[in-house]
Design brief:
The chain contains 24 helices and 17 strands. Strand 1 and strand 2 form a beta hairpin. The longest helix has 24 residues.
């Protein structure tokens, strides 16, 4: 068994919209964080919130070519509200993050601005034949934030934290419109010596994007990039449609409805016959209580925005979460309390915080927690958190991404459940998505519905919805196999004298997990585990380098995927993360659906790659 992919290539291999990238050695991950050219120059893909996808880069170049001034950078967003929030974030964070080490120039009023780019076909007859364009209610409008180049890292932070950047598929479609318009304009443009010689400026047809060359990418280069994207898109579309794996994008609205029903457990009779039904354990829940968003972090972000609109107070992050969850709570709004251990005395400290804020008439707005957490696989005592939330009228928000609703019932305890659909719900690692589910039986439900109505936007691109619907059809059938494989691997690792600790819900805060685990025979402990070794970082390096599987960011894939998680997520704050048990030598592993005997043999070989104490001494 050897599923390794060359450095910088897509994971899965040859997947146009892959959401991971191959970093096959420990040093590759370190060098990626250090910005080493040997790694960055080979990257054709990456996790989309961290690595701006190639189609998005091409679209940014196109829009900059039209609108940007010299020394300006750009970031593109799918809605005006997203772009305006990015502008507000930059003005808010520039003075806060300005320091001797990180000298951001403080922007003047109006220096960070929003422009819109309309991707509308010039040839209406051709547009009527377009599978996507013929079903759009209005032309696609992209909103571009233009800003001084030295402030670009702040725009990138907003993109990363909120997950509100545009989809690579949407970017590709905009590039497709630009290419079609360019070809059409060349066909209808009157003959002139200037146009024949190629020296005249391009005509100003709507949506072509080639109106002014303001540095960066030349019009000819941008055209070449667009055409190269087109070749790949057409091949991918042919394969999907030829073998009937995807519905036509014109059915995207229906696919979103199916996704909401699937997540709510409110499926049609036919879908139930196919084994896709799941009981969420909450009476009165309907698909209207499910909100689809573009990414998992968008689910956290919009929930936080809605709560800020309701109360505007601080939140509490209970337990060590995925990195951007804490960033959202800290950077957007009045801040957050971080109880990073998520056990023991943290419960008492949480109660003191709630009581102190109640006495000061400045109530806490929400408690955020993950069940289980990433990467430590801890599960909070939801019954205790629910009791505290009820006593102080605080919202309880639970991220179920790692456990998934196939294995755990957290909605019965929570006011809001958020999840990254990019992970095991999709499984194929080729599309981003997220969900927000409101519990209709909680006292804050009506207020949350109203607040969500003021901030929520349906920004899931139609093609992404189609792929997500296809990928998730067998979600409930895939999870039991992943559960069985992961448990077997976890037990194998625990039995090794080279392993210091295996973090897995069966062994980590096990009683808390048992209380929320579904009672069905197919429910289990999920596919994610983390491991540390007796030999420390040198042993982790040897194990990781010897592991013959895909290696890169993300999790919940149908194939096994490993990552030196702390190196990638907390490289600039390793000492801080270690205080909470997230050590630099931790290896996180997402187990897939490979044959179990092959998986076990692969992990045994990786363990054998770690020198024994005697060998190390020599």
């Amino acid at each position: 068994m050897n599923s390794q992919v060359p450095l910088g290539e897509c994971v899965p291999a040859s997947t146009r919209y892959a959401v991971s990238v191959s970093l096959p050695t420990w040093q590759d991950n370190v060098d990626y964080e250090l910005g080493a050219p040997r790694v960055l120059e080979r990257m054709v893909s990456g996790y989309p919130r961290f690595f701006i996808a190639k189609p998005v880069q091409a679209l940014v170049a196109l829009v900059k070519d039209r609108f940007a001034l010299p020394n300006e950078a750009a970031m593109v967003f799918p809605s005006l509200a997203c772009a305006q929030r990015c502008v507000a974030f930059i003005y808010d964070q520039a003075p806060k993050q300005h320091s001797a080490e990180l000298a951001y120039g403080l922007p003047a009023p109006g220096q960070v601005r929003v422009v819109q780019y309309v991707a509308e076909p010039v040839n209406k007859k051709a547009a009527a034949l377009d599978a996507i364009g013929s079903n759009l209610e209005s032309p696609i409008t992209i909103y571009c934030v233009l800003l001084p180049a030295d402030l670009f890292p702040l725009a990138k932070q907003y993109w990363q934290h909120t997950g509100n950047g545009i989809s690579a598929r949407l970017a590709d479609y905009c590039l497709h419109i630009a290419r079609v318009n360019e070809e059409y304009e060349q066909e209808v443009r009157p003959y002139s010596p200037a146009s024949r010689g190629g020296t005249a400026q391009r005509s100003k047809g709507r949506g072509s994007g080639y109106h002014r060359n303001a540095g960066g990418v030349s019009p000819n280069r941008a055209t070449d990039e667009i055409q190269s994207h087109e070749t790949g898109i057409e091949a991918d579309a042919y394969m999907e449609e030829r073998f009937g794996r995807n519905c036509d994008p014109k059915h995207a609205a229906e696919m979103k409805a199916v996704l909401r029903r699937r997540i709510a457990g409110a499926l049609s009779e036919e879908e139930q016959k196919q084994g896709a039904q799941v009981e969420r354990g909450v009476t009165g829940l309907s698909s209207s209580d499910v909100y689809l968003v573009a990414t998992g972090m968008s689910a956290v972000y919009y929930t936080h925005l809605a709560l800020l609109g309701m109360r505007g107070g601080k939140s509490v992050c209970f337990g060590f979460p995925y990195t951007d969850t804490l960033k959202i709570l800290e950077k957007f709004g009045p801040g957050a309390y971080f109880l990073g251990h998520g056990e023991g005395s943290d419960y008492d400290e949480l109660e003191r915080i709630l009581e102190r804020h109640a006495m000061d008439q400045d109530p806490i707005q929400a408690i955020f927690t993950e069940c289980p957490s990433n990467p430590l696989l801890k599960t909070a005592d939801l019954s205790r958190l629910r009791d505290l939330a009820d006593r102080h009228s605080v919202a309880l928000v639970v991220d179920e991404t790692i456990g998934s609703f196939a294995n755990v019932d957290v909605l019965s305890w929570a006011d809001v459940v958020v999840s990254s659909l990019t992970k095991v719900f999709s499984g194929d690692s080729n599309v981003m998505g997220g969900s927000i589910v409101l519990n209709p039986n909680r006292s804050l439900y009506s207020s949350l519905r109203t607040a969500m109505g003021t901030v929520f936007e349906d920004l899931m691109w139609c093609e992404d919805a189609v792929f997500l619907e296809r990928n998730s059809r067998d979600f409930m059938k895939r999870v039991p196999g992943i559960n069985r494989n992961a448990l077997a691997v976890a037990e194998l690792l625990r039995a090794s004298n080279k392993v210091a600790q295996v973090r897995y819900p069966k062994f980590t805060t096990a009683d808390n997990y048992a209380r929320i685990m579904r009672s069905t025979s197919e429910a289990g402990y999920g596919g994610l585990l983390s491991v540390e070794f007796v030999g420390g970082e040198s042993a982790s390096r040897a194990f990781y380098d010897g592991l013959a599987c895909c290696k890169g960011p993300s999790l919940g894939t149908n194939f096994t995927l490993a990552s030196p998680y702390t190196i990638l997520a907390h490289f600039t704050e390793l000492e801080w993360a270690a205080k909470y048990g997230v050590h630099a030598d931790l290896v996180r592993i997402s187990i897939g659906l490979e044959p179990l005997d092959e998986l076990l043999a692969m992990f045994q070989a990786a363990l054998a790659s770690i020198p024994s104490a005697k060998e190390h001494a020599c």
